[in-house]
Write a structure and sequence with these properties.
Layout: H1 9-22, H2 26-39, H3 44-56, H4 60-73, H5 78-87, H6 93-106, H7 111-125, E1 128-130, E2 138-140, H8 155-168, H9 171-174, H10 178-196, H11 203-217, H12 221-228, H13 235-243, H14 245-257
Antiparallel strand pairs: 1-2
Length: 264
């Protein structure tokens, strides 16, 4: 096909499919997206737009599969990270958290960042709760301890986050600022990801775990926590951001040159 090398063609498929979807012709849109994916399998926007259409048609599993395909091609694609974070919060809290945290590295400012920052904090707060009857009693939300070979199984990571959340509910840790608390949670998550990396399967283990493990090794998570908290409007954080431009620069130099691994 003499037009196949035209860089603009993937965009034509992505936009034409979306135009059909906007007219309420979802099934016709999916046919166009599939045609585009066949010709341009590496065009992440066609996968993403197909995911949005599948979501509107309430084909949730198909929508997630499309977002995952887009994320395998472009792991920092903020649209796919946004929707997977919001979609997975009931079925896989840790995967939802990883999507949300990665989103805040890719897009720390704007309306979507406000939503995801709040969402991430709600997820972190959900790993342990104080008993309504007895304030001294804390229960940890344990993940599905099922088949460890299952894709994106995070039972041990969830247990670790539960222990971290439980400790943050005790008075000894309460004094920490929100930014410090976020930094602590993310470091604990990265440590746990590093332990489970060999056995872990699925996009979150294969593509995203190495990113968080390396960020932790480079001791950049405390800086990340300040960046991720930009939309909180916290004055101390705003001051820290303006006083530490060199640290922000170092973080983004690492982030922009990070070599993402691809999922199977």
């Amino acid at each position: 096909d003499k037009h196949a090398s035209n860089d603009a063609l993937p965009g034509v498929y992505a936009n034409y499919g979306s135009a059909l979807d906007d007219k309420g012709e979802g099934e016709a849109a999916i046919k166009i997206f599939d045609e585009g994916i066949k010709k341009f399998p590496a065009a992440y926007l066609i996968h993403f737009n197909k995911g949005l259409t599948c979501g509107r048609l309430e084909k949730w599993d198909d929508a997630l599969a499309c977002f995952f395909n887009a994320m395998k091609i472009k792991p920092t694609h903020s649209g796919s990270l946004y929707y997977t974070s919001l979609s997975l919060d009931k079925s896989n809290k840790v995967a939802a958290l990883i999507s949300g945290l990665t989103f805040l590295a890719a897009e720390p400012e704007g309306k979507r960042a406000v939503t995801i920052y709040k969402h991430v904090n709600e997820l972190l707060g959900s790993f342990a709760q104080k008993s309504k009857e007895n304030n001294n009693q804390i229960s940890i939300t344990v993940g599905d301890l099922g088949d460890k070979k299952k894709e994106n199984n995070f039972s041990t990571v969830q247990m670790m986050l539960g222990i971290t959340a439980a400790s943050s509910l005790t008075d000894s840790v309460k004094a920490k600022t929100e930014v410090e608390k976020l930094s602590l949670y993310v470091q604990m998550m990265a440590n746990s990801l590093s332990t489970g990396q060999k056995e872990g399967r699925g996009i979150y283990w294969e593509v995203y775990a190495p990113f968080w493990v390396e960020m932790n090794k480079k001791e950049l998570i405390p800086v990340y926590a300040h960046i991720a908290s930009i939309t909180s409007g916290n004055e101390e954080n705003i001051k820290w951001i303006s006083d530490n431009q060199d640290k922000l620069k170092a973080f983004y130099e690492w982030y922009n040159s990070y070599q993402w691994l691809s999922g199977k």
